[in-house]
Structures are given as structure tokens and as C-alpha cells.
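Practice problem 4.
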């Protein structure tokens, strides 16, 4: 008999359900008796003992379903060691619930913050296995996270739609793409959508270079310019500021997001008409694309295999086209960023995409 806890934490994404289904199907197909405890709304469920007993039926028909059947929430890692408003020690509470239910293992699905807490629980002696979810694809130790490809599809669709209206009106369009502090999503959706300019946090931009790229396109006879701008894009000037100075600047920030600042600067400096489109959380919504369904199922199945073997303390990830297990201590607290020298960046430049650098 195996007693498994499941939770999904942090921002949701596509294929969370597919991944959990993969774990549970693998365990039940092995013939092992399994009890599944689904903790609700992320770590909160484990802290406050809020769970539902789940059976195979709960996982039937959810391969294609977006969101998470368990609900999710953000419980910042830095607050984990701080008592809650009633003085409850959150880490101790999670341990007590784990031991009270006599769990063999917690399977935790999440991104960066989630992995820091998962590693903390491992250090505290719990058996933990994690699965890498996030549309940002910024998790260390895995080439790919599930949710990413689905989000690339949605952001690309958005750029495709903008393309037709941009060409009718001869305007400059900015599509602001999610991705938090990294540019994977913007880079991939931008390339897939044929964006002319791609701005990502890892390559700070110079607004004059951006305008130069727009002017050069016009000189070549193009009526419009499509820009894919990461929500975390940053100018060269801002990238030079200290953390404190940057925070100070943001206190009086006049724009809803960086894309509006860029649009304003282009309009003021060049007199050209710019429009901004922000697909926002649509990028995390809807059903997972076929790639993510397969990928999440594979990761889930491998997690199930580790549970059956009693091998804990790993994230199940993907490296060089193989599913691999990565020690949690290697994953926690590190970001996987786009290197400005990456071949994909060089190739994008080779086909004329400007990064405004
Ligand atoms: O980490 C996933 C993500 O969608 C980021 O791309 C984005 O910056 C953030 O979450 C948005 O968070 P929230 O849903 O809390 O607004």
C-alpha cells in the first residue's frame, strides 16, 4: 500500500491535470494499492490539513482539462518560516499533516517558488517528488516545463491575429507576452509568429535601436512592425540601476506595464502610431496542447515509477530528449534564463529579428 499526497502550487498552467493523471494511472496500472490525498489550493492545503481523498474516477477524463482539479495558490517561500496570523508554524504544520496521514510521499507540481519549498520539506525529512510546471519554462534542471508549449501556441495565435490587422492599418503593434523575469515564451512565440522585434529581459533594449529597426523596415517597404515584448523586458538604462534605484523608479511608474512605456517612447520619438495587446492570463488558460499532454503524461508516469521504487528527493525533468531525475537541491532557487549568446538568439538575429540591443 502506498499513501500519496498530491498538490499543485503557484500560478496554474495547462497539463497540471494530465501530469497528475499520469502519476495516478502509473501507480494503479502497477497493481499497487494506492491511497491518494489531494491537498487543496497548493501548500495551504498541506499546512491547514485541507484535503480530499481521491480515487481513479477523479482522474478520468482530465487529460485534456486545463487548470488544476486541486486548485492552486501562491504561498511565498520567504513566508514559509514565518508563523501565520494565528502563530502557526507552517513548516511544522505541513510535517505534522504528512505524518498524521502516514504518507509515503508528497508529489508536488510547481515552478520556481514551489521547488524551494519542496526542497525545504525534503530537508525536513519528508519524501518528496516534484514535477516541473510553468508557462515560463524557467525552471533549472529541465530543458522543458509542461504548460510552456501550450502557452507558446496561445501567444503565437495572438501574434498571428495581430499580423493581419497590423498589415491592414500599417501600424506598429506590441504584443506583451508573459514569462515573469525570463524571455523563453516571448522568444519562441515571437519567432513562431514572425515578430520583427523581440525584447526579452536577458537582452536589455535601447529604445533608439528599436526605432532604428522600425525605420529600416519602413525603408525596405514594410508597412507595419510586429514587436513581441516580454512582460519583464528592461531597457539598458534601467538594467544599470541598482535594485533600490529600480524599486524607486517603479514607485512612480506611470504605465500599466513595460509595453505601454515602450509604445509611448516610440510614439513620442518617432511620431508613429503604436498599439499594445496584452493576452495576459489567456496564455495560461484552456486545454493543454497535444505536446504538453504527452509530455506531462510521461513525466507523471516516471514520477509514479520513482514512487514504486521508493526513490525520493527528485524533480522529474527532461534533458537532451530524455526524461531524467534531478536532485531537488540542484533545482531549488535557480532560474534558467535565455543566454544572449544562445544559438536560438543568434539564429533569430540571422533572419533579421532585432532584439533592440
Ligand atoms: O509564472 C507564471 C506566470 O504566469 C508569469 O508568466 C506571470 O508573470 C505570473 O505568473 C502572473 O502571476 P499571477 O497569476 O499571480 O498574476
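Answer key:
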Amino acid at each position: 500500500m502506498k499513501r500519496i499526497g498530491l498538490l499543485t502550487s503557484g500560478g496554474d498552467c495547462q497539463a497540471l491535470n494530465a501530469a497528475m493523471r499520469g502519476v495516478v494511472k502509473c501507480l494503479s496500472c502497477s497493481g499497487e494499492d494506492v491511497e491518494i490525498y489531494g491537498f487543496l489550493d497548493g501548500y495551504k492545503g498541506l499546512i491547514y490539513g485541507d484535503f480530499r481523498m481521491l480515487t481513479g474516477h477523479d482522474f478520468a477524463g482530465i487529460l485534456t482539462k486545463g487548470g488544476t482539479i486541486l486548485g492552486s495558490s501562491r504561498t511565498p517561500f520567504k513566508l514559509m518560516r514565518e508563523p501565520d496570523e494565528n502563530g502557526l508554524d507552517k513548516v511544522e504544520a505541513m510535517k505534522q499533516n504528512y505524518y498524521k496521514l502516514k504518507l509515503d510521499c508528497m508529489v508536488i507540481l510547481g515552478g520556481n517558488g514551489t521547488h524551494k519549498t519542496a526542497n525545504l520539506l525534503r530537508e525536513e525529512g519528508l519524501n518528496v517528488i516534484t514535477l516541473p510546471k510553468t508557462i515560463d519554462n524557467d525552471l533549472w534542471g529541465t530543458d522543458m516545463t509542461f504548460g510552456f508549449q501550450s502557452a507558446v501556441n496561445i501567444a503565437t495565435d495572438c501574434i498571428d491575429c495581430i499580423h493581419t490587422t497590423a498589415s491592414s492599418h500599417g501600424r506598429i503593434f506590441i504584443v506583451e507576452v508573459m514569462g515573469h523575469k525570463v524571455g523563453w515564451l516571448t522568444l519562441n512565440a515571437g519567432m513562431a509568429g514572425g515578430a520583427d522585434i523581440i525584447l526579452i529581459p536577458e537582452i536589455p533594449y535601447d529604445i533608439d535601436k528599436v526605432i532604428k529597426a522600425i525605420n529600416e523596415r519602413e525603408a525596405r517597404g514594410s508597412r507595419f512592425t510586429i514587436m513581441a515584448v516580454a512582460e519583464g523586458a528592461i531597457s539598458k538604462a534601467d538594467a544599470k540601476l541598482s535594485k533600490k534605484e529600480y524599486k524607486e523608479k517603479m514607485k512612480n511608474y506611470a504605465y500599466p506595464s513595460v509595453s505601454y512605456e515602450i509604445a509611448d517612447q516610440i510614439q513620442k520619438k518617432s511620431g508613429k502610431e503604436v498599439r499594445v495587446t496584452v493576452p495576459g492570463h489567456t496564455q495560461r488558460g484552456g486545454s493543454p496542447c497535444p505536446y504538453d499532454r504527452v509530455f506531462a503524461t510521461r513525466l507523471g508516469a516516471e514520477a509514479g515509477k520513482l514512487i514504486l521504487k521508493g526513490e525520493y528527493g527528485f524533480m522529474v525533468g527532461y534533458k537532451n530528449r530524455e526524461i531524467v531525475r534531478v536532485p531537488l537541491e540542484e533545482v531549488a532557487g535557480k532560474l534558467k534564463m535565455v543566454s544572449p549568446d544562445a544559438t536560438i538568439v543568434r539564429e533569430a538575429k540571422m533572419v533579421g529579428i532585432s532584439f533592440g540591443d
